[in-house]
Model the fold of this input.
Amino acid sequence: MSESILVGQLSEIIRVGGRKRLTVRGRDIFIIARGSELFALDSFCYHAGGPLHMGDIEEMPGYTCVVCPWHRYKITLRSGEGLYHSIDPHNLSKPPVLCSKGVKQRTHLVTLEGDDVYVTLSTGDPAHTKLESDQYNSPAS
Ligand code: FES
Done:
């Protein structure tokens, strides 16, 4: 069953730059504050375990992404989708098209009560499906 866990205060997260890495139930995650929203994702990149929690934020049409420092993969903060630009190799004058690889990085629910920040791990849902980021962020078994 999913459980909401107190992980800190919003004022503290803002004070340290709007980002916090932590371990919840043995899972390595990070929280990002963007405007009035909070997001939580697995800390290590689904691609090869890079330090996604240290990635820059990049705005793309319709998406806010975190960019992995290792190979520059772009992952949406809201859904954990991997994004890429597709080109037509037969017509290089066509502009690249933004495409999704689907959900690759696990995200978690973040809620706020006053200044208190709570995380609900998406792995707490018995119906959750395995994602590629699980291999780098799950508790050791
Ligand atoms: Fe993140 Fe390769 S490890 S893009």
